[in-house]
Write a structure and sequence with these properties.
Layout: E1 6-14, E2 17-24, H1 30-33, H2 43-58, E3 63-72, E4 83-89, E5 98-106, E6 109-119
Antiparallel strand pairs: 1-2, 2-4, 3-6, 4-5, 5-6
Length: 124
Amino acid sequence: MLSDYYQIKNQRTEGDRTVFEIALNPDCRVYRGHFPDMPVAPGVCNIQMVRECVERIAGRPLQLSHITQCKMTTMLTPEQHPDLQIYIHKFEADEPPFPVHATIGRDDEVYFILKAEYSIPDPL
């Protein structure tokens, strides 16, 4: 879990999508290494934020099982993009695998696209 990387400010449903209002934490230790003096949001952290939002909708832990598309259209930085929206489009947690189409952006701008499948983790 990315406990100090971001904060969910709000969650709402708009038609067939769920919207999460996100605030990036510019003081997070991730940015000290990625990159000093020019903090950039790592793609893997974007993928993790999406997973954590999908888990909130599903009400259970999930694991990423397959990525169909993962595209960054803008370099995300906590200074230029401190407040983001994560859109989870048409997610249904009926039966695995769970297909997910998610975008990260702000208003009409799209910065990140993820199309993937999630599954239920195997018990240990």
